[in-house]
Amino acid sequence: MEPNPIKKWIVAILILLPFLSVAQTGDILGKITDQDSNPIPYANVLIENTNIGTLTDDKGEFVLRDVTYGDYTIIVSFLGFKSQELAVSHNGQNNALREVVLEESAFALDDVTIVTNRDEESIDEIPASVSVLTSRDIEVFRQHANTMADIVAYVPGVSLSTNTTQTRGQNIRGRNMLVLIDGIPQSTPLFITNRDLNTIDPEVIERVEVIKGATSIYGNGAEGGIINFITKNGSTNKKLESQTTLGASGSLVNTDHTIGTNISQIFKGRAGNLNYIVGGSFRETGIMRSAANEISSPFYGLGETEFYNVFTKIGYNLNDKNRLELMYNYFSSNQNSNLNRIAGVYGEIPTTGAFGETNSLEEDQGTRFNHNYYLKFSSYDLFANTDLELNLYGQNFQTVYGFSAFFTDIDGGFEGGQSRITSDKRGARLNLTTRYTLADVISGKLIYGVDYMGDITEQTLTDGRVYTPAMDMNNIAPYLQVKAQYQDLIFKGGVRYENINIDIDDYTTLVRNSDGTASGGVNVIGDELNYSALTFNTGIRYNAWRYAQPFFSFSQSFSVGQLGRILRNATDPEAINGRIDTEAVIANNYEFGITSDITDKIKFQGTYFLSTSDLGTTFSEQPSGLLALARLPERVYGIELQLDTRLTDKLDFGVSLATIEGRTDDNDDGNFDDDDSYINGTRINPSVFRAYLGYEITPVWNFRLFSTFSGDRDRFDPRADGSFAYGNGPVNSFTVTSLFTSYQLAPNTKLLLGIENLFNEDYYTVRSQWAGRDTQYEKGNGINFNLRLSIQL
Questions:
Q1: How confident is the model over 392-435, as pLDDT tens digits?
Q2: Exposure b/e, 109-127, CB count within 10 A at least 16 = b
Q3: Using CA atoms, how far apart are residues 724 and 135, in angstroms rounded to an integer?
Q4: SS3 assignment, position 395
Q5: pLDDT tens across 723-759, in order?
Q6: Which SS3 state, helix, strand or coil, does residue 568 take?
């Protein structure tokens, strides 16, 4: 007998009913305010352990759309307020949260979540020095800064910028740093470009995360630490949101030929499970002038330059726990100058620029292109409390340097030349995070995975000659990181195993023949170089005491150490085959620090660090004038202090001090306190003291003053003729003060003004002093302005 068809339908419905109910979705609504019932716009709202999140609108309201029914924990956070976790039962009957009130915190930096260490965690969980520049910081600093190199210099431990496109000498704690854009390496450790800090427009950056001290978490090249530029995302409740920025800049010493303009446009929105952001920016600068009205040198200068940036990021939530995201960013900066460089006299007369007929052989300096892209898949709670992230990425980069007679080859018919560095990277990262609990007492995470990166870097001249051969690197590195927390005690430790192979074809060193004596022309036999190393890190932090949360850490980095500079100066045909020192550098970083909430309105951070390595990476000038790497044992050490206080509800004040010193063990006896040498200015800059004062004049009008004092450093004697070897020049102190102010003209319109060098200090930059060269003896900018109008719809 056939079953009754009605009964079959009833049975089918009963079987499917649980699944149908699980699939039901609805919106979760809410409003975020402060303790005075004022709405908090752009607060972060995130459902824990999912990809679902958004920002509040200008009324403090938010909507989490199409959320599957169930019980959730919602995390609400905003800088300056304490984060809250809210338990929500979402069933379609009660989808609206009551008004959520955030408690103000003068210094809520502990609530800032960072991702550069491959795990989302707040700063107070990390046993190491970490600094974050928020979107608000970037908005303020960019008004009196010319580049990202200027902006990151506000982080204690990062040395002052050079006021040029070339950032040699700007580092973290006296060592090279690894610069990233959303985790994509911008640095080229095989041959450092000194351009990696200035390869993206600040307009598309959400925040900057700085991890200080040697680390191998992203592989090759982070002896001093990591700077990660995190780009903006499309978090919004609206289908379409627009931000337009118009601006102008120029010198207030003399506006003639100095006026520049900038414009940017960003659109972002959300449509169902899809969110997006897309935008572009254009900026052009006029000439730069010193406080004494001298025109700044065009060589590696920031004047008469056009900057372009195109950016997009598209994300799609496949469901509550799985997400795909695509990012692309294009940046270009090219100088089109009508100036000639007029060489000065070191210690007496600055190098300047002058209008006139320029060199017809010279191409525009600057970064021709910097393409960055990734495709990322994220899965929360994929299996056994484990999250997965798979990231496929790439970078294509080329930069062109200034014309130099150094490349003259009379016999070859070349009257000088310009070098360019090209780097193509492709990579993949598989990262897994497993949460665990032991006996309900210890909780933590295991972070593990494997990285692959290929990098082809070469240096050629624009006329086609090869200066540094193509180096084809393949790097595979598995890693494991353990995090454990017992009450207020936090422990972290991990290992990473580096495997690097670098293929170098046969090549001929560059021929130069400028004075009748030929050099170069060595036919070097290609080979494969292999490196491997196991690097460690460990750290511990104790958070039980409000007045002192101490931490200690030890970490190592691994770096090939500018192989390209060694190869291009080879004098032996079998140089690669074991006849030159290409051994990798392992740096050890020891760090002890304390953070302290002295009161609700006073916060202090202090750190002492020591960095050692058996091999060095310091440039030293040879009798030929060429720069070579001094491969000597090194010790770098210093102190970083920072104090922030809120004097009143409208007035805040802060100071910071970063001091550093470094020495080499010239006689390799293990003692750095005898007749050994100091490390020169290419690595070690003078102490830097900073102070700021902020005041809210009205709820819509505020201002901030920033003052930077750079100290003296005089460690080296002049040569017999009174000149200094490169990097050994004495550095004299100076103080520069800048102003920021903003006025909210309307709810969606803001006027921002920045004044760099407010008191028109006439000074020489740190780099121009330690370089010890006539052509690099350059002054910093005089007083100048940057005015912007921002409209958000």
A1: 999 999 999 999 888 999 888 898 899 999 999 999 999 999 99
A2: bbbbbbebbbbebbbbbbb
A3: 42
A4: strand
A5: 999 999 999 999 999 999 999 898 889 999 999 999 9
A6: helix
**Strands ordered across the beta sheet of 205-212:** 130-133, 205-212, 225-231, 177-181, 184-185
CA distance 162 to 759: 20
CA atoms within 13 A on the CB side of 587: 34
- pLDDT of residue 562 exceeding 90, the answer is no
The mean pLDDT of the chain is 88
The first and second tokens of residue 773, run together, are 């060269």
Q: Determine phi and psi for 287, rounding to 5 degrees.
A: -70, 160
Identify any residues that bridge with 129 across adjacent strands, giving them in sequence order. none
In angstroms, the CA 72 to CA 30 distance is 14
β-strand partners of 596: 604
Whole-number Cα distances in Å, 701 to 58, 135, 142, 449: 18, 18, 18, 48
Residue 8 DSSP SS3 = helix
Residue entry with tokens 């010493």: 253
Strand partners, 627: 621
Band of pLDDT at residue 119, cut at 50, 70 and 90: confident
How far is Cα 122 from Cα 113, in angstroms, rounded to an integer? 4
Using an 8 Å Cβ cutoff, are 369 and 359 in contact?
Answer: no
Are 432 and 448 in contact by the 8 Å Cβ rule? The answer is: yes
pLDDT band per the 50, 70, 90 thresholds, residue 477: very high
pLDDT tens digit sequence for 199-217: 999 999 999 999 999 898 8
**What's the pLDDT band for 219 if we cut at 50, 70, 90?**
confident
Contact 41, 79 (CB under 8 A): no
Return the beta strands (E) in 600-725 as ranges: 602-613, 618-621, 627-630, 634-646, 651-664, 677-678, 688-698, 701-710
Q: What Rg do the C-alpha atoms of the chain give, in angstroms? A: 28
Q: In which band, very low, low, confident or very high, does the pLDDT at 618 lie, cut at 50, 70 and 90?
A: low
Measured distance CA(544)–CA(565) in Å, rounded? 49
Question: 159: exposed, middle or buried (C-beta count within 10 Å: 0-12, 13-18, 19+)?
Answer: buried
Q: Which amino acid is at 365?
A: Q
pLDDT of 622 higher than 80: no
At residue 285, φ and ψ (nearest 5 deg) are: -115, 150
